[in-house]
Amino acid sequence: MVGIGGRLAVCPTRASAQGSRFALRFGEKRVQPENGLPEGLVKGIESDIRLKRVESKPALERQSAFFKWITAHRQALSASGLEEGIHLFDQIQRIAGQGKSKRSSLVSELTLMRMGFLNYPKQNPAAQTAFQQIHQYFNTALGRVEKPQDSPVMQRLKQALIAAAAEDTAYDKAAYRKRSHPIEGHCKAVAHVLENLLGGVIVRGMVDGETHFFNRVQNGTMLDMSNEQYSADRTRYNGYTPVTTNFRIVAPTKDINPRFKTYFSRVLTAYLSSLEQSLEQTP
Fold first, then answer.
1. Cα 238 to Cα 41: distance, rounded to the nearest angstrom
2. Which residues of the chain have pLDDT under 50?
3. Parallel, antiparallel, or unpaired for β 247-249 and 210-216?
4. Tens digit of each residue's pLDDT (9 = 90 or more) over 150-208
5. Is the dihedral of CA 123, 129, 130, 136 positive or negative?
6. How many CB atoms within 10 Å of residue 193?
7. Which of 6, 9, 192, 209 can pair with 27 through a Cys bridge, CB separation 3.0 to 4.6 Å?
């Protein structure tokens, strides 16, 4: 698949017994190392996939380099070209997902979240499919525990939600400068992130006399991962469990608030960084 008008594209060559092969091109020309893509990088990743050694340190370094490259060129890639590049991560995720070790689980989660980063916002069928996998992953992790806060996956997401919060992604910038908690003014932005990662719907209720947004995720669990902004009482305002049972479903909108897009990207960046650090510490 070649990009139109000189756009970058990832072009699948004829599949062989060794597996799917890709040729990266800029328009009709093969991408050279001076274009920012290390020579032989994709061939190395394909070899890792073929030999099912996607968890080794050299393999992870190749995956990281390719992720950085495809992220940097994401706007220039044609939709079909980006789709083929994402297919490599899909293959890695599936192989890692078959493993039983903690390392396998982390690699699977890492590649799944990379797919989410590259597929957001969901604008085509392939992106929808990728996010369905992400929904399933998070809902499965949520279903394994009695309380959301007991899940390592949800704890990692919580940390990313807080790390990504900033004045420019808050509802009221002036009020955020006087904040009592980092997540203050981010309830709908947080709800947008959870809607994308766990599926389900955004809901609206009243908390301490203020309109507040939270989530009913795909498996039916009610989640409020920003309510600790209202009180220091962590028994009730614990950042996971809604403090109100009165709510209304918020109708979806076609356009995404730019503030939410910025916040979502930062959340995934923080999440990916956490996973990479965990992998470095896992034998």
1. 45
2. 1-20, 26-29
3. unpaired
4. 999 999 999 999 999 999 999 999 999 999 999 999 999 999 999 999 999 999 999 98
5. positive
6. 25
7. 6
- For residue 5, is it left (φ>0), alpha (ψ between -120 and 50) or beta? left
> Residue 129 and residue 137: Cα distance in Å, rounded?
13
Contact 128, 239 (CB under 8 A): no
Amino acid, single-letter form, for residue 84: E
Pairing assessment for the beta strands 222-223 and 210-216 based on DSSP bridges: antiparallel
Rounded-to-integer distance, Cα 85 and Cα 107, Å? 18
The answer, as to whether pTM is greater than 0.90, is no
Rounded distance between C-alpha atoms, residue 279 and residue 103, angstroms: 7
| Alpha-carbon gap, residue 139 to 245, rounded angstroms | 21
Strands, E assignment, the chain: 8-12, 22-26, 29-30, 201-207, 210-216, 222-223, 247-249
Alpha carbons within 13 angstroms on the beta-carbon side of residue 35 total: 18
- Of the candidates 52, 26, 49, 50, which has an alpha carbon nearest to the alpha carbon of residue 37? 26
- The 10 Å CB-count burial string (b at 16+, else e) for 108-119 is bbbbbbbbbbbb
Q: Would you give the end-to-end CA distance of the chain in angstroms?
A: 39
Structure tokens at 89: 């991560």
* Residue 164: closest CA among 112, 226, 250, 109: 226
Which residue, 97, 12, 83, is CA-closest to 54?
97
SS3 188: helix
> How does DSSP classify residue 19?
B
